[in-house]
Design a protein that fits this description.
alpha+beta; 2 domains; four-stranded antiparallel sheet; NusG domain II-containing protein; NusG_2_sf
Length: about 120
């Protein structure tokens, strides 16, 4: 009898713990995306803030290549890359705070910043 009660208590505790973990996971995954991306390029570290709340395309001459970034639905991505390996395109769409991508041949990187910068 004592073992059944302990088992029931342990199962309830495990269920509550699992529910809390699922809620925390959902909150972290569904938190609002950052509102701005910071693009950095070139030897001297030039920067540009790019708002993620308006769909647009940005063509930036880094001095080595002209990189192409697209903002769509609150996310940003390297697109139509002129560099030889196209690895930067493989990062996909960045929308969460601290997401980042880099195009090493163009000496450029983009980081999603938190709302308000």
């Amino acid at each position: 009898m004592k073992d059944k009660k302990a088992l029931k208590t342990n199962l309830i505790f495990a269920g509550v713990l699992l529910a809390v973990a699922l809620v925390l996971f959902a909150v972290l995954q569904l938190r609002p995306a950052g509102g701005t991306a910071l693009l950095t390029w070139g030897e001297d570290g030039q920067t540009m803030e790019i708002p993620l709340n308006k769909n647009a395309r940005y063509d930036v001459d880094t001095g080595i290549y002209t990189i192409h970034l697209e903002v769509k639905d609150g996310a940003i991505a390297f697109v139509d890359s002129p560099c030889p390996d196209h690895l930067c395109e493989g990062y996909g769409w960045l929308s969460r705070q601290d997401d980042w991508a880099a195009c090493l041949p163009a000496k450029a990187n983009v980081v999603v910043m938190s709302e308000g910068g």
